[in-house]
C-alpha cells in the first residue's frame, strides 16, 4: 500500500520539535508503547506536522492520529478549536482517537487495548 503524502507548513517542524522535547508525562508514557512498531507492527510518529497542525501521534499507514488531551483542552474555546482542527484533518482522510492525560496515566493498558481494538477493526493490513 502506498503511503499518502500529507503536506504541511514547514514552519511546524520547529514547533513539533519543541513539543517533543516538552512532552507531558502522559504522552511520554504512551510513546513508550507506540514507538518502534510495538503496536501491531505499525509505525507511529510523535508530534507529527500535518497540514496546518501538529498531532500528538500519527500512523500514516492507518491514517490515524492519536491525541492525548490535557486540562487546557477542556475550555469551551479550546474544545471549539480542537473540533475545527479535527474536522479539517478528517476532510483529508485522517481518523482520530482521543484520550485524556488521566486516561493514559491511570489506565495505560485500557488505552492500549482501545488503540489495538481500533486498529484491528479498521486496518486493511495483510499479515
Structural description of this entry:
This protein is of the alpha+beta class and 127 residues long. The protein has one domain (12-122): VSR Endonuclease (Endonuclease, Chain A), CATH 3.40.960.10. Helix content is 45%, strand content 20%. Strand 1 (45-50) and strand 2 (53-59) form a beta hairpin. The protein is globular, with a radius of gyration of 14 Å. The mean pLDDT is 90.
Query: Span from first to last CA?
Result: 13 Å
Largest sheet: 4 strands, mixed
Q: Could you tell me the strand content as a percent range?
A: 15-25%
Low-confidence stretches: none
Going by CATH, what is the homologous superfamily?
A: VSR Endonuclease
Rough outline: globular
Q: What strand line-up does the widest sheet have?
A: 1-2-3-4
Strand segment tally = 4
How many domains? The number is 1
The CATH topology is what? Endonuclease, Chain A
The overall average pLDDT, rounded, is: 90
How would you briefly describe this protein structure?
The protein is of the alpha+beta class and 127 residues long. The protein is 45% helix and 20% strand.
Chain-wise SSE layout:
Elements lengths: L11 H10 L3 H10 L10 E6 L2 E7 L4 E6 L6 H16 L3 E6 H6 L1 H15 L5
What keyword list fits this structure?
127 residues; alpha+beta; Endonuclease, Chain A; 4-stranded mixed beta sheet; globular
Amino acid at each position: 500500500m502506498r503511503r499518502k503524502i500529507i503536506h504541511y507548513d514547514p514552519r511546524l517542524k520547529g514547533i513539533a520539535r519543541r513539543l517533543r522535547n516538552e512532552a507531558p508525562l502522559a504522552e511520554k508514557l504512551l510513546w513508550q508503547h507506540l514507538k518502534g512498531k510495538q503496536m501491531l507492527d505499525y509505525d507511529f510518529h510523535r508530534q507529527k506536522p500535518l497540514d496546518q497542525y501538529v498531532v500528538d501521534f500519527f500512523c500514516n499507514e492507518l491514517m490515524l492520529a492519536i491525541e492525548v488531551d490535557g486540562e487546557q483542552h477542556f475550555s469551551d474555546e479550546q474544545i471549539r478549536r480542537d473540533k475545527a482542527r479535527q474536522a479539517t484533518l478528517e476532510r483529508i482522510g485522517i481518523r482520530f482517537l482521543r484520550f485524556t492525560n488521566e486516561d493514559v496515566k491511570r489506565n495505560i493498558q485500557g488505552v492500549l487495548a482501545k488503540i489495538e481494538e481500533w486498529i484491528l477493526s479498521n486496518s486493511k493490513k495483510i499479515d
